[in-house]
Amino acid sequence: MKIKGRLIWITFSFLAVASLIILAIGFGLAVTEVTGPSTPSPDSRNPSDTDETRGMEKDLLLGLGDSLTRGTGDTNGQGYFERVHQSLREKNRGISAVNLGIKGQTSEDLTKQIQQDRVQRLLKESRWITVTIGGNDLFRGSGSLEKIDLEKAENTRQAYEKNLQSILSDIREQNPDAPVFLFGLYNPFGHLEDSEKTSALVTEWNQTIRAVSQEYTKVVVVPIDDIFQLNPEKYLYSDHFHPNEKGYAFMSQRLMQAMQVDGEGSVNGG
């Protein structure tokens, strides 16, 4: 009996330790998902990517860009992109989606990603294209929050402008017809002291986005800065940088309005 009881105790202890290890690993992965830089492996897939092999026949929603397209900060894992995908599927079950957003991606990174054969093939197949890009350029390339370097910020903005022109030109080369929905930037630091400087930079960069978009047909800018302007803490994730569920819900509403989707899942304008 003593031996049997000891074996039971050892087994129980082993299972308890194993459970703690698994829990710790899971927590670490969750933290990395939110805060760490990300470069997806060639085999990584979003759940919505599974439609890629089914023959999309021009009913494809394609997402490009950074962590906002990826959905970082949404504990439900949807972000704006999957919310819009599901809304479209309610109107037309034949609509598929591929999310190519990468956490931490800059405009220079996107100019390289868009040259990949797989991405160019998907661009050709796309019916709608969404893009979020520029936030990492702006806040990495403008000095620190404590001391914004205006000269550095301007040099970064000029480089971003050229990259954005390259991105939109490459998209139009692969697909002249699909509307491109380009999200504007927002200021996640509007609740901090001296927020006037960061707000002024965001305004200037949004003007650049609008100016570049006008150089191309069917490129629609989706503004979101006002969503976060008055009450940023309500719509930001706990990292005070990415949107939370409410923030992404607003983004998806703005995008659906811009897409002007009718009951058949067709775009009326843009």
From TrEMBL:
Keyword line: Membrane, Transmembrane, Transmembrane helix
UniProt-annotated stretches for the region Disordered: 34-54
GO molecular function: phosphatidylcholine lysophospholipase activity
UniProt organism field: Paludifilum halophilum
Membrane-spanning intervals of the chain: 7-31
Matching Pfam families: Lipase_GDSL_2
InterPro entries named among the record's database cross-references: Ester_Hydrolysis_Enzymes, SGNH_hydro, SGNH_hydro_sf
Repeat keyword on record: no
KW Lipid metabolism (keyword) present: no
Source organism, top-level taxon: Bacteria
Protein name (record): SGNH hydrolase-type esterase domain-containing protein
Biased composition (Polar residues): 35-45
